[in-house]
Amino acid sequence: MSENKSPQARPAQLDDRSPWVLDTRELGRHAGLSKAVQRTVPVETALGVPDVITIDAGSSLELDLTLESVVEGVYVSGTASAVATGHCSRCLDPITEDVEVDLTELFAYPGSATEETTDEDEIPRLVDDRIDLEPTVRDAVVLALPLAPLCTEDCQGLCTECGVKWADLPPGHGHEKIDPRWAALVDRFDTETGDDQADGPGKQA
């Protein structure tokens, strides 16, 4: 063990009933052996940014993974996919978005050089030949969610004056503003124009 490393506490046992926990014993710590895993896991706590975009509690994540035994541990690769919901950051319309993230993670064997030279928050560990996928998957999914989701790439958003979607407004829509310094002159012009029209054509001076 490195002189700069202190002994690490043994991780708590993992619950085999959890859908996030995978048993790797059949790999037998023989480098080169692998197995495929497909699993649907429930989302118990919403993932993402509330009121922006989330994978909601009560939905599920689809895992399509390969577990491979390597010298230092078990290497997990594959994808996690789910459906996210939220609101367009420009026009505020509700959106639904398919999310798929790539997963790559090494879970270190107890007593391996990797375990002895890294902290657990750097590289996760196997516990009794089992791995807990939840922290890895949750982190990857949250990082993959867009910070400013859009209903379409070319969404024009809302008119800043009336708050209506630009896509729903007629061509040439606008809100003309008059400089306050000219407002009195414009009012006088409008009044005089109205009086002239009221008098009608042909009025004699």
TrEMBL record:
Domain of life per record: Bacteria
Protein name: Metal-binding protein
PANTHER family noted in UniProt: LARGE RIBOSOMAL RNA SUBUNIT ACCUMULATION PROTEIN YCED HOMOLOG 1, CHLOROPLASTIC
Species name: Amycolatopsis thailandensis
InterPro entries tied to this protein: YceD (IPR003772)
